[in-house]
Design a protein that fits this description.
The protein has 275 residues and is mainly alpha-helical. The protein has 11 helices and 2 strands, in the order ααααβααβααααα.
Amino acid sequence: MTAVVLATLSLALSRPSVAPLTGTPACMTLVRGTANRRLALKVSASAFAGVVLGGGPVIPAAHAKAVPTQSELSKLVEGYRGIVKLLDNWDDETITCDAFDRKKESCSTSAARRQAASSNMASCSCDFNPTRVQEVMGFKSTQHPLYLADQVMIRAQPLLKPDSDFDAYDTAVELWARKAEEANVMSYTSSWGEANPGGGRDAVQRYLDKSKKEVVESKELLRQILSALPVDFDREHHAQIMSMMIITHASKLASCSLRRQSARVARSHPQRNET
């Protein structure tokens, strides 16, 4: 617990401050909290009124720059796909091995590499790499697509699809910010697992596994958020749906063809009534 607290304080002190948006008063800086949500809801209401009254969304001139561009929305999509890739290849992404040892049979499988990272096997030199989680979640570089992503999400409220639930969206954004931060804290704590008093490789693995749990929840929240925005974010999901539709359609065609064939056979060989 002490390790987690220290990690949280360290991250809070090292996190760069956020400058106000150009052209807006300092008091309207878009940071996490109630003030930014009020601003987003105010802008969203104006945009909605514009749609209802005609002429397209009407966004107050003072806040026009707050609405994210398509490029910024695309970064959210890019970040989402990065999280999907991380989770789909978790061991490969979060475990690093010596290039020579990796070719050995004893180190050829993901399970073997994970065991090696946990026990420091001499025959397979591998280590956990918790920093990879921080990188993918946007906490290691200001240039990362998910760096301060929650601010982009808040500013994107005027762009929500007409059938979207504004309250559900706002809640998802708040939870995303919290879960992403917790994933960051757990991975940071994991990276110091061996150095902390009473720590070891088991502590590294334990906190890394906790970090994964937060990443999984973050992914689902980001998916929910992107579903409400005008972006094509889940090509794989759409491909799966199309594939299922094609298979279902082909199955129906095959079934119809079989029934027609059975009907033709029945007509060509009518049953004779017994006399």
